[in-house]
Amino acid sequence: MQPTGVFVGAATLDLHYLLPTAPPPNTKGPAQRFGLYAGGPATNAAVAFAHLGGRARLYTEVGSHPLGAVIADDVGRLGVEMIDMIGGTDAVPMVSAIITTGDTGDRTVVASHYPNEGMSTGFDGEIPAGAGILLVDGFLMAAAVEAARLASDSGIPVVLDAGSWKPGMDDLLAHIDIAICAADFQPPGTTGCEEAIDHLFGRGITRVAVTGGGQPIRYRDGESTGEVPIEAVPVVDTLGAGDILHGAFCYYLAAGSSFADALGAAAEVATASTRSFGTRAWMHPAG
Question: What pTM was estimated for this model as a whole?
Answer without folding.
Answer: 0.95
